[in-house]
Write the structure tokens for this entry.
Amino acid sequence: MKYGIIGTGAIGGYYGAKLAHAGQEVHFLLHRDYEYVRQHGLQVDSCDGSFHLDNVNVYQRAEDMPQCDVVLVGLKSVNNDKLQSLLPPLLHAHTLVVLIQNGIGVEEDVQQMFPDVQLAAGLAFICSAKTEPGLVSHQCYGSINLANYSCKGEALMQTVVDEFRQAGIETGLVEYHEARWKKAVWNMPFNGMTVALHTQTDQLLKNQSTRQLIREQMMEVVSAAQHLGVKNLDESFVDKMIETTDAMTPYSPSMRLDYDFHRPMEIYYLYTRPLEIAREAGCPMPKLEMLEAELRFLEADLIPWHVSGTR
């Protein structure tokens, strides 16, 4: 199939490059490093084996891209308003759009923008960063699960899974709500805590006080998900996430990098939306509500006084 990548960063750049390296036809939309990648190609430095793509199908404008069978959206969710202009040139009647984004509620809102488009969630478990032009640094892990949100045919979903696997990407098909809330178990504590305490994942778990707090935050997510009827999510999953993070390379999650580089943080879908859903269901998450408030404070400090009106 023909793949389009919107958001060629740490995530979209990695999975798109893996597919292209395996021989798939992949078209990349780039912004800041378009000229660099056009001239020098795309480099992936990976714990699983580094590689370089010499001839990359790169574009500065979505209008110049071909229609694609699958579009992988690796944009940060704070930029989803841009999808209204970026997505249409890539779509045909049967295109599947996979939102490889953090948080709860992204598919619902994108579906409102594009009522007839087939959507799936992409749940990536990967440590990856892109801090230099044309270079994706893949540190560890790399699997991705796909969850059907509004795709009309399971055969199409399975074909995408098969082609990801052929590209050397560990991939599975999972239930949508379970997948989104399982991802939140890790994302909600670690993304915000690394920002609030200006640290990395390993340091949070080495300190007994923050290790306990991380666990309690994870259990808040589990309790809310269970209250909402999500299956296969309990304390054993929390144990697994902590054990997996213990074994992980010291890591700065995407929100920490956004904060460090003075970019807007994905607070709405990672915190505000799931916290609202949990409160409405009668199962609030007070420790994560406190973390959201801290993140809102830190984000306000990033906004220049002449834009916000206050300082």
Summary: The first helix runs from residue 12 to 21. The chain has a mean pLDDT of 95. The first strand starts at residue 2 and ends at 6.
